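A favour, since you know our structure tokens better than I do. Go ahead and set the record down below.
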Amino acid sequence: MAAGHHDPGGVGSGSTRSGGVFEPARPASRGRLVFAFLLGAVVWAAAGVLAIVLLGHSHILRTLLFAVVISWLVFALALLWGIALRHKEERRERP
């Protein structure tokens, strides 16, 4: 790169020269999205259990793990509620 020339795409980015937003070649399938979401939750749970095992069964670690599980449940309920509302709205707008 020449002196004084600035790459607007950022460090080693493969973004377009026009400064556009990244768009994947094809969107992920619903199955892959669900798998990624569930895998993320399992990894976080495994990390919490591993922390409790390695750092000891302290009260704060058990409390934090409990808080994470409760937050996942609340998020899952909110997500399901949002999906149900979306499907209801889509059914209502069908001709």
About this structure: The chain has two helices and no strands.
